[in-house]
Amino acid sequence: MKEKLQEIKKRALEDILELKTLDELEKFRIKFLGKKGELTLVLRDMGKLSKEERPVVGQIANDIRQEIEKKLLEIKTELINKAKREKIEEEKIDITIDTDEIMVGHRHPLLKTIDELEDLFISMGFTVVEGPEIETVKNNFDALNSPENHPSRDLSDTFYLNDELLLRTHTSPVQIRAMKEMGAPLKIISAGRTFRFDDVDDTHSPMFHQLEGLVIGENISMANLIHTLDIFIKELFGKDMETRYRPHHFPFTEPSAEVDVSCIKCRGEGCEECSFTGWSMELLGCGMVHPKVLENCGIDSEKYTGFAFGMGIDRITMVKYGIDDIRLLFENDMRFLKQF
Ligand code: PHE
After folding, report:
1. Domain containing residue 27
2. Which of 90, 192, 290, 304 measures 20 to 30 Å from 18, CA to CA?
3. pLDDT exceeds cutoff 80 at 105
4. 324 and 193, same structural domain?
């Protein structure tokens, strides 16, 4: 009987290594340890043994049962873990996988224009300077020779913070700051925000952008002004662009002019866009710096002369990119901005 038990043990421990599934494992358990299992059947014959032998064989049988059960538990645990691992693997979600495209931003069309304009003027030897958006009434008007009764000083035109401070109505006060800080000679540009009491429509906004330019030196003349601006306009819009200087008035320049350029669309041929004139609306204001303005900044107007110009950057951007409503530039609608 002992041999029979050892034989069962040997076979069981061999077979056990072949078990691949929980199903097979259960079948194996029934085969050896079940009510009608091999081990159980052998023990039924215990009665035939002697009194002395019975506990010994009983002990052996128990040991074998325990050993097999222990092995079975090990294998069962391993099989369950393996099944779990497989399930996890199967249901795994790769969170590192790309789903939606990541949106990468880019510069605003207005800033792109400013960059381009600055690059152009830098290539012509200008230095870029900055001025504050909150200005003194003095710099914005008085030092620029704008008289107390000038309409642009009116409450309905200008955002005053108090009697002395306002949101600058143009970038020209940067001229004053530059001349006072740097003296003559001088060659600067300055771009930034400007503010006027305008009702919003497709071409007007109470906040808009300008680029200011100022050149001060000995023997600077109107010829230098026209040459510089002509080069700039041809570089920006193309060699075939013509310019037209119309007399105008600004308190801080004398003489003053407004500059028209060929119609961007027909390049001077005449089309509906330009009402068949061949010219686009005025692009910038300019003139020879008024001697009073030079003197206000401590520059000898007998020795030095200079020219200045100011242009609307929003309009240039709109023309460049074919944008027909200024509001689009400030609404931050991604569907619009993505196009540029
Ligand atoms: N500051 C003027 C404006 O806002 C433009 C200008 C600048 C004109 C410099 C002449 C010289 O309209």
Report:
1. 2-91
2. 90
3. yes
4. yes
Q: Are residues 62 and 114 in the same domain?
A: no
Domain end position, chosen among 91, 120, 138: 91
Cβ pair 314, 198 in contact under 8 A = no
Look at residue 24 in the predicted model and tell me its pLDDT: 87
pLDDT score of 99 more than 80: no
- pLDDT tens digit sequence for 229-259: 999 999 998 999 999 999 999 999 999 999 9
Number of structural domains (the chain) is 2
What is the reported pTM? 0.71
Bridge partner residues of 191 (DSSP) = 211
**DSSP per-residue letters across 289-326:** EPHHHHHHTT--TTT-EEEEEEEEHHHHHHHHHT---G
Inter-CA distances, 101 with 98, 105, 338, 340, Å: 7, 12, 14, 18
From the CA of 302, how far away is ligand 1's center (Å)?
Answer: 23
Cβ 146 under 6 angstroms from ligand 1: no
Task: Give the CATH number of the domain where residue 148 resides.
Answer: 3.30.930.10
Burial pattern 303-319, b for ≥16 Cβ within 10 A else e, equals ebbbbbbbbbbbbbbbb
Pocket test for ligand 1, best of 144, 150, 169, 172 (most atoms within 8 A of CB): 172
Task: Please tell me whether residues 123 and 161 are part of one structural domain.
Answer: yes
Establish if 101 belongs to a structural domain. Answer: no
Residue that is last in its domain, among 91, 126, 152: 91
- Closest Cα to atom 5 of ligand 1: 310
Give the atom of ligand 1 at the shortest distance from the alpha carbon of 285.
Answer: 8
Taken in order 28, 29, 32, 34, is the CA torsion positive or negative? negative
